[in-house]
Specification:
mainly alpha; three-stranded antiparallel sheet; about 50% helix; about 270 residues
């Protein structure tokens, strides 16, 4: 509609009168509105599809569509925790009571597996293969994948499972049953929202004041694996990414870190 109104003001009523010069002037005109990047991408996509329609149906002889390049979305920059920060976060959880043992197991499992908070929420006891130290999780699009537990995560999980029945007690009697691994104080499934609140609580306790979200533990898992030499394809499988390009963002982040380390530590870089 914006393009149509612009052409009307120029008294252009026929699509074939529209040429590249006029269209470029129109693009310069809409620049004045200071649209967001996402709005610009949406508009360019609409123009591209509109011109393709006109060309394919014989309303326009000029191939204007080939001159339209839809801008790419900016890559989202993830917040990554250093290895020391992850250790500080985990150490901030003191497993001296039932809640502490549960919370420590949650954080250890997220860092050990790279699972999303929503995936951890839905883990059931039956999903854990104790003989192979692996867990089946349900990711985006209901896709199953296996994630793996390290020794520290297994120890924390064992400690939590020893007292898990306490979360099912009511007035001293065990009268509830839940298949889910992580439970709230009422014996029900611990929600994603609650898991996020738990992690935020310990981030604050650990004194980690960077722009860190609970999802940053997953990003840190992938980044630290890459730093230790794991391949992109292997990390893609562990994270459950359908497209390798989603995983490659971690490679870009680590190149940036590599450059920073070079500047900080090479004796002749300063």
């Amino acid at each position: 509609l914006q393009l149509i109104n612009y052409l009307r003001r120029l008294k252009i009523s026929n699509a074939d009168q529209l040429n590249l010069e006029i269209f470029r002037k129109f693009l310069k005109f809409i620049d004045n509105f200071k649209y967001s990047k996402n709005t610009i991408i949406r508009k360019y996509s609409s123009f591209l599809n509109f011109f393709k329609f006109l060309e394919e149906n014989g309303y326009m002889e000029k191939n204007l569509s080939q001159h339209i390049i839809v801008p790419k979305k900016d890559r989202k920059i993830f917040s990554i925790m250093s290895k020391d920060e992850v250790i500080s976060l985990i150490n901030s959880v003191v497993p001296e009571n039932d809640m502490g043992k549960r919370d420590k197991a949650i954080i250890e499992i997220i860092y050990a597996t790279g699972a999303r908070v929503s995936e951890v929420e839905n883990i059931k006891i039956a999903d854990i293969d104790f003989s192979k130290n692996e867990i089946k999780v349900i990711g985006k699009g209901n896709k199953e994948r296996m994630v793996y537990l390290n020794r520290k995560a297994i120890n924390c999980l064992d400690g939590y499972l020893d007292i898990r029945k306490h979360f099912l007690q009511f007035r001293g009697e065990i009268n509830k049953k839940s298949d889910y691994l992580f439970l709230n104080k009422n014996g029900g499934r611990l929600s994603s929202r609650s898991i996020r609140k738990i992690i935020k609580k310990y981030l604050k306790k650990a004194g980690i004041n960077k722009n860190i979200t609970p999802h940053s533990i997953r990003h840190s898992f992938a980044s630290h694996l890459l730093q230790e030499g794991a391949g992109i394809r292997e990390i893609q499988e562990l994270l459950g990414h359908e497209d390798i390009s989603t995983t490659q963002i971690y490679a870009h982040l680590n190149i940036k870190k590599l450059k920073e380390d070079y500047k900080n530590f090479h004796p002749r870089a300063k």
